[in-house]
Amino acid sequence: MTTSSEDLKRSAALAALDHVGEGMALGIGTGSTAAHFVRALGARVRDGLGIVGVPTSEETARLCAAEGIPLTTLDDTPHLHLTVDGADEIDPALRLIKGGGGALLREKIVAAASDRMIVIADGSKAVPVLGTFPLPIEVNLFGLGATLREIGLLSAELGLEGPIRRRLGRDGEPFVTDGGHAILDACFGRIPDPEALAATLNTIPGVVEHGLFIGLATQAAIARTDGVEWLPAREANRPHGARP
Question: Could you report the per-residue pLDDT of 163-205, keeping only the tens digit for each?
Fold first, then answer.
């Protein structure tokens, strides 16, 4: 019997759910794998688990509401115990590319407010070197052309070249994030030094945020056909109140 990608995503989500304990404040990610986590978390909440969540997108907020998951904000709950979110790519050093769903700014804010971040993904997202997936870059609409040009020039200085395109939505119109920004997808290919690229992008005024998540993920649950692999290859430290 073959295992579908959705089955693998669900397996990763359930593995992360075992690290959610009573009374926790959670960051709740966006995307197809995170949606499996939300549905499983909703079932646990309906069984009596007491948690609050901060969603990383309006889409996730709607799904949480449908599942009966109580929500809060980072204004009311500025410190989170754990964030669970997916990734578009993850390398052996737990560096990520995120933003395929267009929520990278809120995802990074929520992850940075958390003690821990568990990434959930199927095995196809684990790569030796980041960059096969186009890097999402969230930019201000003002000065968009100038910002795009500067990204191209500075990335070329790092030896990274390739088309940088404004993302379109399903309707064919330019995609706009929940925060009112555009997304540029940079098709650089292999990114041998993600830290250098992240530092360079951070110097460009029109760049609101980029999809390189470095130093934020503490563990990853990677679901493969033969089971869930944890990165790093050790048992996750379970917080107070988590399931044994």
Answer: 999 999 999 999 999 999 999 999 999 999 999 999 999 999 9
Q: Is the pLDDT of residue 235 over 50?
A: no
Instruction: Tell me whether residue 53 is annotated as binding.
Output: no
Share of the chain above pLDDT 70, in %: 94
- Paired with 55 in beta bridges are 28
Cβ contact 101:30 at 8 Å: yes
85 is in an annotated binding site: yes
Catalytic one of 107, 138, 150, 209 = 107
* pTM, full prediction: 0.92
Q: Binding site annotation covers 162?
A: no
Please report which helix (H) or strand (E) contains residue 197, including its range: helix 194-201
Quick check: is 107 catalytic?
yes
**What does the pLDDT look like over 106-136, one tens digit per residue?**
999 999 999 999 999 999 999 999 999 999 9
**Which residues are within 8 A (CB) of 128 and not within 5 positions of it... i.e. 6 or more apart?**
91, 92
Q: What value does the mean pLDDT take over residues 49-56? A: 98
> What domains can you pick out in the chain, each with its CATH number?
5-126+215-226 (3.40.50.1360), 135-204 (3.30.70.260)
